[in-house]
Amino acid sequence: MLQAPPPNFQAIQNEDILGVTVILLSCSYLDEKFIQIGYYVNNEYSEPFEPENYPNPVDISKVFRNILADQPRVTRFPINWSVNEIPATESNFEEVEDNRGNGGYVFAEDEPDIMNEDSMDVDQMKRELIQ
Length: 131
Hints:
By secondary structure, the protein is mainly β. Helix content is 7%, strand content 27%.
């Protein structure tokens, strides 16, 4: 289980506290990101309000998070797992094969959209790990 403190709401502009955002968890090995998991989050207000009467300031005690924990977006990145190999770069990984010879994933940008073509849900990831 991973735990982290909530964001400092005082550092967030009032009009950006409510609504849809994302939690991104990135894992790296030897300073290379190999997986990123994203979860959509909807920060909702416990009291109804009209969009033109947005709460100002937002009462944080009335905000609750709805995390779509059952629908994560998983993006895998090809990396070098050995210290002795050439560092991974975008030009090295236009087309790559994984260590089982199953080829086909394309290098992901440093800041990918969490909904890109390499994304998969947890069930897809489990099936692929079993193979």
